[in-house]
């Protein structure tokens, strides 16, 4: 697999389109940090890290509106990819949906959202956009 983050985002995207409640994804430290951010921002209901001896799994419970079954994640897209990395300074961090969405960045101080990176005055690699 050349781009595990793109695979992670695609598994979530496909599970949302198929209206699955739970999706299992192979784990890595970057994927765990992205999952934590998605949970903190309210895009997923819950998550669980399972250790199976090798690399482990992430079990994610997706979030839907109980009344009309609309998913919390409308769009999730990869920005920086192995063939074309996207970096930004702290003053060039893009706003997603005029501040309603979230840009997830990998910085020197760890993985964080666009708003956290602005507070810390750090830039980094733009991993993905979520809204």
Cα-based radius of gyration, to the nearest Å:
15 Å
For the sheet with most strands, the description reads: 5 strands, antiparallel
Helix tally equals: 3
Low-confidence stretches: none
Q: Specify the helix fraction band.
A: 25-40%
What is the total tally of β strands?
Answer: 8
End-to-end span in angstroms? 26 Å
Oligomer type: single chain
Q: Give the integer mean of the pLDDT values.
A: 96
Alpha-beta classification: alpha+beta
Strand content: 25-35%
The outline comes out as globular
SSE pattern: HEHEEEEEEHE
Q: Key terms for this structure?
A:
single chain, three-stranded antiparallel β-sheet, 8 strands, 3 helices, alpha+beta, globular, 131 residues
Descriptive notes:
By secondary structure, this protein is of the alpha+beta class. 25% of the residues lie in helices and 31% in strands. It contains three helices and eight strands; from the N terminus they run H-E-H-E-E-E-E-E-E-H-E. It has helices spanning 4-17, 29-40, 114-120; strands at residues 22-26, 44-50, 57-62, 76-78, 87-88, 102-107, 110-113, 124-130. The strands form two sheets. Strands 4, 5, 6, 7 and 8 form a five-stranded antiparallel β-sheet that branches. The chain has a three-stranded antiparallel β-sheet with strand order 1-3-2, covered by helices on one side. Strand 6 and strand 7 form a beta hairpin. The longest helix has 14 residues, at 4-17. It is globular and about 40 Å long. The model has no long low-confidence stretch (mean pLDDT 96).
């Amino acid at each position: 697999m050349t781009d595990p983050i793109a695979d992670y985002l695609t598994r979530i995207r496909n599970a949302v389109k198929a209206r699955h409640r739970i999706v299992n994804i192979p784990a890595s430290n970057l994927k765990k940090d992205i999952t934590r951010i998605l949970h903190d921002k309210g895009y997923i209901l819950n998550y669980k890290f399972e250790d199976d001896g090798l690399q482990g799994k992430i079990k994610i419970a997706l979030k839907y509106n109980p009344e009309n079954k609309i998913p919390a994640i409308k769009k999730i897209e990869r920005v920086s990819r192995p063939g074309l990395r996207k970096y930004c300074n702290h003053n060039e961090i893009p706003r997603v949906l005029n501040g309603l969405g979230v840009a997830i960045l990998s910085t020197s101080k760890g993985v964080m959202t666009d708003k956290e990176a602005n507070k810390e005055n750090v830039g980094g690699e733009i991993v993905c956009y979520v809204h």
